[in-house]
Amino acid sequence: MSLDISFIGILIGSIMASSVPLILAASGELITERSGVLNLGVEGMMIIGAISGFALMVITDNLFIAIVGSMLSGVIISLIFGFLTQSLLTNHVATGLALTIFGIGLSAMLGKNFVGIPGKEFPILFSSLRESIPFFGPILFGHSIVLYFAFALPFLTNYFLKKTKLGLVVRAVGDSPVSASNQGINVILVRYCCILYGGAMCGLAGAYLSLIYTPQWIENMTAGRGWIALALVVFATWSPIKVLIGALIFGGITILQLHMQAIGFRIPVQFLSALPYLMTIIVLVVISRDSRKIKLNTPTSLGRIFYKEK
Amino acid sequence: MIKIEKRNDVPMALYFFTPFIAIILTILGGGIIFYILGFNPIEALKFYFIIPISNLYGFSELLLKATPLCLIAIGLSFCFKSNNWNIGAEGQLTFGAIVGGGVALLFYNQEGFYILPLVILAGAIGGMFFALIPAILKTYFNTNEILVSLMLVYVSKLLLDYLVVGPWSNPEGFNFPETRQFSDSSRMPLLFEGLRIHAGIFLALGAVMLSWFILYKTYLGFQIKVSGLSLKTAKYAGFKGKTMILIVFMISGACAGLAGVGEITGPIGQLHRMISPDYGFTAIIVAFLGRLNPFGIIFASLVVALTYLGAETAQIFLQIPKYTGQVFQGMILFFLLASDYLLFFKVKILNLKKNELRH
């Protein structure tokens, strides 16, 4: 295999593609966490998005319905989490875990009849430009619309949080729910919205996997990506742009280990497959060592229950 | 008019009663799911919850599945009581099984009374060691234990996969991904002829007794409970937080390791890829359903074991997908958390007229 310039272009393109589900899920979770809610159900919401997207594609043969439907299914399942944590004031960690267990079971149950059905080709944009421009072609062109959306999302999220009034409201609710409530902000409503938005993004992340990245339905196909997305939010110290950087690093590791497997690198396949998980741990350790830095950036009320005496 | 008031203290009777509400709601919810899937809900529920334990063999299978769940949940209760979120018990189970299984494979062609205790000990140490990783990273590097313990689940499963495919695979096994069979001296003694229930159940019962003693009769148990209720109080009282975190993770890991060893030396008898149907994750639900109380956990492990068994029975007889078991498990935890609302809030139905008069 020659390491020429066009190969590197293709490599970067594939790294971008593999980072898309992480960017989507982590950006969604970031908004949820900035409002003070810790939703550990990312993996469950992603897998539900994956199966509903794929099932809708098979049933309706319409990719638009499949994509929108997967986001809606993410919203619906995150509504369970929202109702429990916000209206019934349950523990965020336990509820999130329940959501993941429930989601994985439900997706396997719903997906029973969809195993082995081949997926449909997802339309890619600017495919002619991809071939005609060396190096930059495979990086910039020939991707699905979801990828372009995913790469814009961190910047949009950053703009939303820093420059808009609603973004300020979300941050206020996350950092000081009592003051926000005294200012007349409906804390519970804001948190509901952020949870549902997170659900939609996780649903989309799942659909990207089952419709675009590996167009088929496999049980447990998210394979821990939801948990890596959760780790990414910590890695990024709750900053959207750093989520993008982190997701690209993880996408890079995934692609690297796949290529090493393909070349027949003299390391057992399982060790290479374990790399993304081991890297997550190492990165978390490096980032978290400075406890002051983590404390400064963590939304102050993250994971705490807010209750207003009526 | 309905009025909701915050309770000043949680009534203990209600605290242990709400899990039953959760179980009943789960059964109702399950009936609805069966109906939607196109099955007769009454018949499906019968195959799920009654048929599986209507004979002695079924009851033995129930105890067989409840054993690892109970063991792991007992360990987790130490972590959860002290606010340490170890959710990687599945990984600790796997690693314990790897270490214990490794010892069993060393003695594959030998017999001796000392082999089984060595295997069990190795499994407990393996699980303990694996749980120490998130504990040390949490105490000395401030790293989130939820994410680390979970990532290690994937790592341990890949390690097991590597071992059973590669260096530990059975030389006479036609390249199947499995090790040699363990020798009889590495197997848990069966309790009854013809049933699969084995001596591992005594490990679980022993763990229940020991945990009750530690939690309710020792200074360590007191420290664990205080740290769970208020970290500030624990600090003020001068408890050594870091040591305690390491200890609860070690207890939890050892229990999960024991559960893993119980599976491979009990019903399985060798190492292969599928040594646990996610017992480590399901035990989280068992721990909560049992209210983190040793005796509550016995009860909860039986209930949750029944969802495993029921799912298998319903799949065989009614072709209901076995994943409904996981859906049930998720639902139990949802309903349990939801019914906790009743613990902290009083729902009062007021007479509107009287209320108006007072104003």
Please characterize this protein's 3D structure.
The complex is a heterodimer of chains A (310) and B (359). Chain A has 310 residues and is mainly α. Chain A has a single domain, classed as ABC transporter involved in vitamin B12 uptake, BtuC. Chain A has 14 helices and no strands. In chain A, helix 1 crosses helix 7 and helix 11 crosses helix 12. Chain A is globular. Chain B is mainly α and 359 residues long. Chain B has two domains: 77 residues, no CATH class; 231 residues, no CATH class. In chain B, 70% of the residues lie in helices and 3% in strands. Chain B contains 15 helices and two strands. Chain B has a two-stranded antiparallel sheet. In chain B, helix 5 runs antiparallel to helix 6 and helix 12 packs antiparallel against helix 13. The longest helix of chain B has 28 residues. Chain B starts with a strand and ends with a helix. The model of chain B has no long low-confidence stretch (mean pLDDT 89). Classes of the chains: A mainly alpha (310), B mainly alpha (359). Chains A and B meet through helix 4, helix 11 and helix 13 of A and helix 6, helix 11 and helix 13 of B.
